[in-house]
Specification:
73% of the residues lie in helices and 0% in strands. It has 118 residues and is mainly α. It has a single domain (8-111), classed as Four Helix Bundle (Hemerythrin (Met), subunit A) (Up-down Bundle).
């Protein structure tokens, strides 16, 4: 199965500190899970500005794991809302972001046993 992430950047930042890498992965899973849940709760209210703000945060979070496709998708959601004021297809993009993020977290939990506690 193709991995949606690469820890190269995170490991470079950590400079060999595996505890730091583990802490960052735990924080990533917790924060991203919370962000996706928040997006889902804001969707029915069509609170696009708040959704765009969360997408902006997600873009940088995905960058730490080189999750390029998710990084691009979250940036696209932010741009569609804030710059283009284009909501066509936004529901599909949000569904894709949510589904792909759930898969990413499942991959991380499969690869790193310590994440199964989060």
């Amino acid at each position: 199965m193709h991995k949606q992430y690469d820890l190269g950047t995170l490991q470079e930042i950590a400079q060999g500190d595996e505890a730091f890498v583990q802490d960052m992965l735990v924080t990533f899973v917790e924060n991203v899970t919370e962000d996706i849940e928040k997006i889902q709760s804001l969707r029915p209210m069509e609170n696009w500005k708040s959704i765009a703000e969360i997408a902006h945060r997600l873009t940088s979070r995905y960058a730490y794991l080189n999750a390029v496709s998710l990084q691009a998708l979250s940036a696209d959601i932010e741009k569609s809302v804030l710059e283009d004021n284009n909501f066509a297809g936004i529901a599909d993009k949000l569904d894709s972001l949510s589904d792909s993020t759930i898969l990413l977290i499942a991959q991380l939990k499969n690869d790193f046993e310590f994440l199964c506690k989060t």
